[in-house]
């Protein structure tokens, strides 16, 4: 299997590579950051003996195809990177392998194209009474000056974000035209020439829907309720797993919009806002949910989730029933830096279990490290994974853990 990656991630290190090893797959990892992967996988300990790390300009699909072709006939091409879905899909199609439709991969990554595609969608074939609920949006293309947005007839307050952005980086709520232009200038200073999207602000409860498909069957794995930091920024502070089955009518509406976008192969993480009986899409990430939520989801569902994902890319059909548990509950609590500086003290990694609640705390920043304030998930100091079957006990255990520990930045 050929796996495309940029920087190392927990999803690949703890999820997909171990799953590939359990499936007996030799993995060729194509990356533009080979040294980082060598360090992450502890090659000195031969943690993944069937892993070959190969330098490659993975953002260039032609280079990806050329490098794979040099190895001979590939068995599968896969990536869990937000940035590389289109490249992996094009490579899979070139070699006649199972994979995502590259058009769907592109239109979900490109937020302006996603809005155009949903606006153009007619009634859903599975539910003719329903049609897509368009979200107002406008695009500041590469080469266009932010000043051109001054006269934009936008529904303020609105949100500005990079067209191909991830992890809420440079996503900000703006109050009026002057702030919109100013924020765009600031983002362009950090991202020269970047295309931006201005969108209607969708106020309401933020949820996710996690799906897995093989092009024939589309399974709903579950969903999370997400709590964000106060505006103007949008940083995930905690997530709660929604009890199964997923809430209706919102789940069916999200699935209809995914069908309109052509999404249905492999794993997908979709974010939407609940407004009454409407589910309005924020974004579609055509990969597994990150920040360790996918690892917890596999554990709670009690299924070989990462193996299932890889099997779809090997051309194997998914079972009609995944056999997932439905009684598990989880709270993902992210400890955020509130200012720039050096992390002077923080609790170490720990795993405890009491009263049916398992607490797994993992530091994400080492004591002594100094960082600026990013206002994204790069500000996470650590993540607390609290799992069990009783939400009340989970919440109480999280509160006790947070009260008992300190994170000091100087």
Kindly summarize this structure in a few lines.
The protein has helices spanning 10-22, 34-40, 61-70, 85-94, 102-109, 111-120, 177-190, 250-261, 293-301, 305-313, 391-404, and strands at residues 2-5, 27-31, 51-55, 77-79, 123-124, 127-131, 137-140, 158-162, 172-174, 196-200, 205-214, 218-222, 224-228, 236-241, 265-275, 278-285, 329-336, 341-345, 350-354, 357-363, 370-371, 380-388, 408-409. It is of the alpha+beta class.
Shape: globular
Helix share bin: 25-40%
Strand content: 25-35%
What is the average per-residue confidence, as pLDDT, rounded to a whole number? 93
Describe this structure in words.
The protein is α+β, with helices and mostly antiparallel strands and 410 residues long. Helices cover 28% and strands 30% of the residues. Helix 5 (102-109) crosses helix 6. It starts with a strand and ends with a strand.
Primary descriptors:
alpha+beta, 10-stranded antiparallel beta sheet, 410 residues
Fold topology:
Elements: E1 2-5, H1 10-22, E2 27-31, H2 34-40, E3 51-55, H3 61-70, E4 77-79, H4 85-94, H5 102-109, H6 111-120, E5 123-124, E6 127-131, E7 137-140, E8 158-162, E9 172-174, H7 177-190, E10 196-200, E11 205-214, E12 218-222, E13 224-228, E14 236-241, H8 250-261, E15 265-275, E16 278-285, H9 293-301, H10 305-313, E17 329-336, E18 341-345, E19 350-354, E20 357-363, E21 370-371, E22 380-388, H11 391-404, E23 408-409
């Amino acid at each position: 299997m050929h796996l495309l990656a940029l920087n190392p991630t927990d999803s690949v290190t703890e999820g997909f590579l171990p799953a590939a090893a359990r499936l007996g797959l030799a993995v060729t990892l194509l990356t533009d950051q080979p040294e980082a992967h060598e360090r992450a996988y502890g090659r000195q300990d031969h943690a993944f003996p069937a892993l070959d790390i190969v330098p490659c300009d993975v953002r260039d699909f032609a280079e990806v195809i050329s490098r794979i072709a040099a190895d001979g006939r590939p068995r599968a091409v896969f990536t869990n990177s937000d940035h590389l879905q289109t490249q992996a899909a094009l490579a899979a199609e070139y070699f006649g392998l199972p994979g995502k439709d590259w058009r769907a991969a592109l239109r979900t990554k490109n937020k302006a194209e996603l809005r155009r595609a949903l606006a153009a969608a007619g009634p859903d074939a599975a539910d003719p009474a329903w049609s897509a609920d368009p979200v107002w949006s406008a695009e500041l293309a590469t080469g266009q000056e932010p000043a051109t947005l001054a006269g934009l007839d936008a529904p303020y307050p609105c949100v500005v974000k990079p067209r191909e952005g991830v992890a809420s980086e440079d996503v900000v709520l703006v109050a009026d035209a002057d702030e919109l232009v100013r924020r765009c200038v600031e983002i362009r200073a950090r991202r020269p020439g970047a295309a931006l999207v201005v969108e209607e602000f969708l106020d309401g409860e933020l949820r996710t829907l996690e799906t897995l498909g093989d092009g024939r069957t589309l399974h709903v794995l579950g969903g999370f309720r997400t709590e964000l930091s106060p505006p103007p920024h949008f940083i995930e502070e905690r997530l709660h797993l929604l009890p199964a089955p997923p809430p209706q009518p919102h789940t069916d509406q999200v699935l209809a919009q995914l069908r309109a976008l052509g999404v249905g192969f492999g794993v997908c993480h979709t974010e939407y806002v609940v407004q009454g009986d409407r589910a309005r899409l924020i974004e579609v990430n055509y990969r597994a949910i990150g920040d360790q939520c996918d690892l917890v989801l596999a554990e709670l569902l009690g299924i070989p989730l990462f193996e299932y994902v890889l099997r779809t890319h090997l051309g194997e059909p998914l079972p009609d029933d995944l056999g997932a548990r439905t009684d598990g509950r989880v709270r993902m609590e992210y400890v955020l830096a509130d200012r720039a500086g050096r992390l002077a003290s923080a609790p170490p990694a720990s795993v405890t279990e009491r009263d049916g609640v398992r607490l797994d705390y993992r530091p994400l920043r080492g004591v002594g490290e100094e960082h600026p304030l990013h206002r994204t998930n790069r500000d996470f100091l650590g993540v607390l994974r609290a799992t069990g079957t009783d939400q009340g006990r989970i919440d109480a255990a999280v509160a006790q853990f947070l009260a008992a520990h300190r994170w000091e930045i100087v």
